[in-house]
Predict the structure of 3-isopropylmalate dehydrogenase.
Amino acid sequence: KGRLINLPSIAVIPGDGIGPEVVNEGLKIFNYFNNEYNLNFKFEEFNLGAKRYLKNGELIPESILKKLETFDAIYLGAVGDPQVPAGILEHGILLKLRFHFDQYVNLRPIKLLNNRFSPLKNKGVEEINFTVVRENTEGLYAGIGGFLKKGTADEVAIQEMVSTRKGVERIIRYAFEYANKTNGKVTLCDKSNVLTYSHNLWLRVFEEVKTEYPNIKTDHYYVDAITMKMVRNPELFDVIVTCNMFGDIITDLGAELQGGMGLAASANINPDTVSMFEPIHGSAPDIAGKGIANPIAAILAVSMMLEYFHRDDLSEKIENAIKIIIEENKLTPDMGGKLTTQEVGDEILKVLKRG
Ligand code: ATP
Ligand code: MG
């Protein structure tokens, strides 16, 4: 997993709204490790987002896209701005990068760092620690379909669910490789009892790939059943592999279980091209510029990046430091604290320096 790299280079896209504010804190932590452990990561910033678009209509100029191809990863804040019609920046930047680099894995760790922010806090749930591996390029989100007799009483709208053997196999294989690292279990989440073509392929490919990993345990849940289990027995799961739409839905459920958007990071991965790491929240224009954005999700995105580059040790240090500041309530207002974005970053840094 991950390319073997001597001098990893990270393209930083701070983006819009609170994006630059939280990315700044993420880079503060990254720079500390870079110096402390001689990591030799190189960073270069790219200004993409609302400002550029409003100035000259540019989303990602071809020259920047070409330049980004030479990096190992992208660290993204958020894009989105009330002055730009919804969807333009998301399609023109986020989805553009995702498709250009064929980032077929959406990786979403669901980890309970402190159960005080989880809706399950009074339910006796102690441990939530699993990762959703969501297929990111096809399925029901492939954009294929159309209307028949549009606008009439007999109108029919068709949205096709496209699953290719290559697409299904590579995501399932990624899930097994990921589980292999931690001796985890792989759970297939589908609806093969009803989606008898598309998810029948998933089921067959899962069975095939499984035989190559005889040491890895597996199980299988239909998506409706898994939502119940995620709430009732989240400790059952290690790695859940699922299609694009189901992944979309269960990762939001997971984000709430772990304590909300302020604590959720994700990665869009293609181990052979350029992968992108980001907090799941958006640009939050309502709080931009006030210095109160919660930087934890962006810092967890840095933790995911370090894990991707095989520094699980440093990734764990970040998580532990975050656990400590949550315990001490050194947090921004959205999590009930009184600190600013920068102060939270500083507190995490302080814990890291204490070692
Ligand atoms: P976008 O259009 O880019 O998705 P958004 O306004 O929808 O931006 P979201 O990230 O979806 O922003 O967040 C919804 C709301 O949650 C925000 O308006 C903000 O009040 C709050 N929020 C989101 N992220 C954070 C954060 N990191 N810290 C504090 N509050 C946040
Ligand atoms: Mg939003």
Notes: The chain has a mean pLDDT of 95.
